[in-house]
Every structure is written in structure tokens, then in C-alpha cells.
Amino acid sequence: MNGRRLLHLLLMLLLLYRGSYGVEVLEFQKDGEANMETVAEYGGRLDRSWKLQSLTLCARFQIFHMHGRGTFFQLWDRPDNLTSQLRGELWLDRVRSVIAHRWKFQQIKEKFRAYRWYHLCFTYNHMSSGYKIYIDGDLNYKTTYEVDRPVYGDTIRLGQGEQLEHSFSGALSQVNVWDHPLSADTIAEMATCKIDLKGNYISWDAGWTLFNVTSYTVSLKQFCHWTAKTTYFWFPETSRELATYVCEALGSHLPLPTTMDEVHSWYNISSATWPDEPSLCRDNFWASIDDMKEEGYWVTHYDQSPVAVNTWKDNEPNGIFFENCAEIEPTGLADIDCVTNKRCSVCKFSQIAFFSLLGICESELQNVHFKVSQDYMGHLLFRGYGEYQIHKEGEEWVWFNVKTTQTVARLDPQSPLGMPMGRRTWHLETSVCGQMSGTRTLCLTSCPDQSYTCDDATCIPLDSRCDRKYDCQDNSDETNCQLVKKPNDYRKDLVPRVSHKNNNKSLPVALNITIESINIDTTRMMMFVSYSLKMTWYDYRLMFLNLKLDDNLNVLSFEEMMSLWTPLVGFMNTKSSKLSVMDKETVLYLRRLQPHTHTDNSAPGEVTLYSGEENPLIISRVYFTDYICDFNLVLYPFDQQHCDMHLRIHSASKEYITIDETSTSAKYISSGLLLEYQLSQLTVHFDKSSKFSDVKVRIPLKRRVGYALTDIYIPSLVLLLISYLSLFFRPHIFEVRIMTTLTALLVMATLFSQVSSSLPKTSYFKMVDVWLLFCIVMSFLIIIFHVIIDLSIKDVTNPGSYPPSKVTKVIPLSDPGALSPTPTLNTSIITKIYNFPTKGYVSMAQYGIFSILVLFNLMYWSYIFG
């Protein structure tokens, strides 16, 4: 164990020693001229019998120029004439490794920039068929694919492919090949300059035979701590507006010294840069602050950030509102007039400034990207990675093709400030994007990825474009906010297909219904619904521009909406079968679900394109619709109903359009307690029986019985009980008993009439009708019993109706001597008359009515709740 630790320690010391000693770097075609003679051939031994099944290829590189592609590594076998056994190729936006004549492109996350060091590794594991790409130690891409052939060869060279435009222009170092896949941790340590691991198949230290290639040595850590040399672009005396524009357009700012040492340094830098031209600018440079908006409140001109300046000259600033700009003098800052004065300007760059020329329809980035340089004061040269450059000829800016020695276009002489940076008009002299002549708007920008270039060449975040607020200082970010790009053969009357790959499958359309309010009219059997209807579909024919994550920023204008195909939906169970409409209240917007596929290289700006096949269109509108319901009121008021919203897509038959069952939904967002009903969970039902695609949103309704109980059942039950209790009144008070029951009967009849008027007229009995009719019939039956009981009692007020033997003479105590007797009814006789048979009738009525009541209620409520 100790021996292994000692060996490991010695190995680490050796690596550190080698890293500090130096690593060889090879430079190819530094002048950018493509030729087939710049090549480095491997000096180590190659064994054709050593066949690689798994492998790792790593290299550290720096790009100078790009000719189509850069082939930095090639292994081939001459005896078998296999030229692509192992190859590494670079573009500005993608990489490719060729393994045994099989390859796979991979777009990189961030485009390569010239004059910057990168570390790249390809790994392949034949056991798992796993293929991975690492850039600067980070996994950029992984996939699986079968190679099924070994890698071998007898020749290795660097810097050349098989064609002139495949040659490599840049610097190479640490090119190594292993016969196994390296781990991610090992690759990360190599990328971060912690180790300098050599390949066991191809080793960088084995030596290279150089042909027109220069070589130098750097320390290992210099690759990872490499910083570009600070550069300065100088411009002679000019206006503050032009000085500000030039620095901002170049991706820099006017200087602002924060200490007196920095103030003095500008004079020293100028003297060192232009030692032979003392008449040129040595002091008095424009500074990047002003107090134009508020006197005495100094801010930077590029972001309006407040600045506490402590480098003013004595007695400065002293110009109040007459002098709102600042200049850098040898002894400090001073305020001066912004309009009438001209001063020198300088722009500082911590790294090389790179530019892109947008709107020229070039698919290869080497013809789009430029790097800017300065040979003398006021001069700018935009040299492309490929065959283009932009320079000034006399007083005119020219876009020139160095390969064909042709002028492509000339800058319009009326361009703002006479400079090419930003969005400018050019006069074409050769074909650009199929346009042979005339004027064309192009954009020369230094803005990085995920940025948008304003007309004045300043940069803002890409998502800030067309976000309904101004972000550019010239307000150009809220113009040309078109969202949809249609092909020339687009027709809005044709139903989109699913994709260009599957043109026979019907288009799925998702319907999403959000109900805001529901009102039920039971009498008319109508449902009044306020809801939002959204329809979602894809149209592969369309391309979308600069989509935002916020849907509200992807809303199409009314004109754009009316120019596109949209689904037409019919509301079937409505009067006259209403249809969906397209008007000013309709909103059509786009939803970004997938990242952009590519950019529009014909647009003079940063325009990202999103496929209509992967990002949907959504149309939304609020509707107020009266739906016809079919209620079964047999169990009213203890019924449970449902009412459907029947929707049908009318645009085409279901052979062309179907409803997307997995994405269609319906929801209710308000309170579930309505005036008469309580809502349950909405359900969606799909009807496939018709020619068209139909969907029904079923709204379950459970009636709230509180009203019926308090206004129908309890009052009617109380009245019925009153009628029943009249059977317990004394039999001989017939008028009281009959009036009580008749009054209850009349009230119940009135109640029945009111309830019937509030419900639809049906040919069948409702349970509430049964209840009220029962109450009325029972009251009428009680009246019959009262009559029977009364008839069973003799009218004692008529003595002639009784036998003489049963009449006694009653002499009032007040007149005992009265001669005329007054007939009266014997009390005992009355009792006997009441008991036989009146008492039997009363009892029969009491128990009979009670039994009927109990039996009916048992049957009634069992039927309802059973």
C-alpha cells in the first residue's frame, strides 16, 4: 500500500513538473489563408494490429479562422484505404467525431469564439454503445449508436482534411487517444489543467513532424488562466453622440476613471500606443457620464446608474446646466458642453470584439461572424472567419468577398452617424438571399447569444424584445413584432395535418372549457352558462418567431389571427345551434413548449424560430350561451339532474379533425352552490357516433331541498295534521271541525297551484304533486268522516225527532209553577247516542286516517330515497 502511494505521489510530481515545464502548442494557418501544406504528422509508432473497440479522443484547441470546417485530427489506414477511421471536426456551432466511418453531428450549447482555448473530448464505449462529448470538462451531449467495427490505422495527421475547405486554422495542443473511455472526473481534471494525461494509443509527447506549422511552449496552467490582452480602440476628435455610439456598438463603453491614477493612466496609454504621433489624442477624452436629466445628478449614459465622482478637477464641475457632459483631462474630470465640443474617444476591450452580420442568409457561421481590429486611429476592420470582410474605402463602407474579390454591398451614405454597426441599409452589388440588387437591411452586431440588437447596435436581453415596454434607447425593440411566418403556399381554408411526416392522420384539437357561472331555469329547462372556451392545436406549416415563456406576450394581432386557419365549433343543444365566432373579443396566442429549432438567417436581427409542429396555437374566447336541458322531474324536489354542453367541431369531419381526448377538459371555478342546485364534478363524454367529432360536458345537478321542505312539505304537513287533529274535536261542534278542515284544504289547494305554476308542465306526476294531492285527498277524506260522524249524531234541538217516552218535563227553578212543560234531551240518552255508533265512527276515522298517513309516508319516502 505504501509503495502504491509513493508511486502515485511520484506520478503527480511528474505531472506537475511537466505542467510547469511547458506544453507544446502548434499553430496552423495563422494568417487565415487556406492551403493543403499546413500539416503535422504523428512521429510515434502506430500498430495496425492494435484495433480499438472503445476509445477516447481529446484535444485542446483555439480557432483563428474557419474554412467550411476545421479537421483537427485524422487517423486513416493506407493499406485498406480507410480515410476516416477516426476523425475530429469543428464548426463554430457544432462538432463531429467520425469513428470507423460512422459519425454523428452534435450542436454545442455555446458557439465557439476565435482566439479562445477550448478542451474537447469524444468517448465511445462499445460495451454499452455509449457516445459522449465533453467541452471544457462538461458533458455536452450523450447518445447511443452502434459502430460495430474496430478503429485502426497507420497514419495520423493534424490540421488537414481531404479538401482545402476542411483544413484547420488555429492552435492545437494535448491531442491524445486512449483505447478505453475515460471517466468524466478524469476529463474534468484534464480540462481544468489539474493533470496532463497522455494517451496510451496516441500521445502528444510522441512528437510531430511539422510542415508549415509553427510551434511554441506554454505552461499547462496558462491554458486555463488564459486571458486576452486588453486592447484599446482610439478615435479622433468627434461629437459626444458619435463617440458614445461607437463604443457602445463595439460592445464597450466610454471610460470613467475612479482614481487619479486611472486619470493619469489614459495619457500614458495613449503615449505608449502612438509614440510617433504626438499630435494625436493624448488627453481630453470623452467620459461616460452626464447630468442631462437632472443637474448635479451624474449617471452613466449607457444604463443611467448614478455615479459618485471623486476625480473632478479643482473647481469642477462648474458649468451648471450649460455643461452636462464630462471629459477626462490630465489633472481630472471637467464638465463641458455636450453639443458644441468635440473630443477624442477611446474604447477599452478586455477581450477581442466579435461581430455577426445578420440578414445575409448564410447557413455557415464562418461567413456570418467577424472579428474587429484597428490598425491606426479611427480605423476599423471587420474580418470574417470565412471569406468576407467589412472595411472602409475612402468615405464609404464596403462589404467585400476576399475569396472572389467582389464587392457584395455598400453601406447607404445616409446611414446614421456614417458607421456600419447596428441595423443599417446596404446597397447590393451581388446576390444576397436571392436578391440581386437594390437595398437590403442588414445588422452588424457585437451582441452575444440570447441578446437582441437595437437599431443603434446596443444590446438588450432577447426576452426583452416585444415585451410591450421600451428597453432600447431608440425604442426599436417594440417594432416588427411579427409572431408568425407562413409559407408562400399557405391556405387558411385547408385543415392542418399532424405533421409533414404523417399527412394522413387527422388533426387532434383539444377543447378546454372553464365555466365561470351557471344559472338553471327549471321552468324553461334552460341552463345559462358563462364560460371560456380554449381550443389548442398544432400547425406544422407555420413557424413562430421569438416566442416568450409568458403566453400573454405571444398574442397575435387581429389581422394575423384572421389570416390563419382556426377550428369552428358548434354549440348543438342551443336554440338555432350557435357557432363559435372570431371577433375582437377572440384571443389567439402561441405557447412555447419546445426550444427554438434554429434562427432566421434572412432576418436583420436575432430572430429565433419555433416549429408549429412542436408549439401549439391556442384560441380563447368567453361565451354566454343558453343550453337546452332535458330534465326528468319525477322525483322533484328530491331529484338529481344533469345538463350537457354539447359541442361539435364543424370545420371538417372526423376524418380530418378529431377531439384530443387526453387533453380535453372542463372545470367549474365558482361556488358549487347554486340557487336551486348543488353542482358535482363535471365529466367529459366523447360521442363517436356522428360524422363529426362531438364532445359533451356533463354538469351534474343535485337539487337543494331546503326550499321545498320549508315552503311545501312542512306547511302542507302541518295543514294535514291540523285536518287530522280536527277528528279529535268534540263531535257535536260540527261547524268548527268542518271549517278547520275546509280551511286547511283550501290552503293546500292554493299551495298546490303555486307549486305547479313554478314547474314545467309535464304529462307525468311529480313526487311533489303526489304529496300535495295526497294531502288534499286526505283532507277531503277527513271532511267525509266529519259528515258521517255528524250524521250519526241526532239533532237534539228537534224534540219531535225523539220518542215521547224519552222526553221529560223540565220545569225551570225560576218558575216552578209554570203550566207549560219544555221538552229537553235526557243527558243519559245523549251519551248513549254518542257511544252507539258515533264513538265507533270517530275511532275508525282517527285510527284509519293515522294508518293511511303512516303507510303513505313509508311508501313515499322509501320510493324517493330507496
From TrEMBL:
Alphabetical list of SMART domains matching this protein: LDLa (SM00192), PTX (SM00159)
PROSITE patterns named among the record's database cross-references: LDLRA_1 (PS01209), LDLRA_2 (PS50068), NEUROTR_ION_CHANNEL (PS00236)
Molecular function terms, GO-annotated: chloride channel activity; extracellular ligand-gated monoatomic ion channel activity; ligand-gated monoatomic anion channel activity; transmembrane signaling receptor activity
Keyword presence, Amino-acid biosynthesis: no
Membrane topology: Multi-pass membrane protein
Keywords tagged on the record: Cell membrane, Disulfide bond, Ion channel, Ion transport, Membrane, Signal, Transmembrane, Transmembrane helix, Transport
Spans through the membrane: 712-729, 736-755, 770-789, 841-863
Span of domain Pentraxin (PTX): 29-225
Family annotation (SUPFAM superfamilies): C-type lectin-like, Concanavalin A-like lectins/glucanases, LDL receptor-like module, Neurotransmitter-gated ion-channel transmembrane pore, Nicotinic receptor ligand binding domain-like
Top-level taxon in the UniProt lineage: Eukaryota
Localization per Swiss-Prot or TrEMBL: Cell membrane; Membrane
CDD domains reported in the protein's UniProt record: LDLa (cd00112)
Disulfide bonds: C447-C459, C454-C472, C466-C481
Signal peptide: 1-22
GO cellular component: plasma membrane
Name of the protein in its database record: Pentraxin (PTX) domain-containing protein
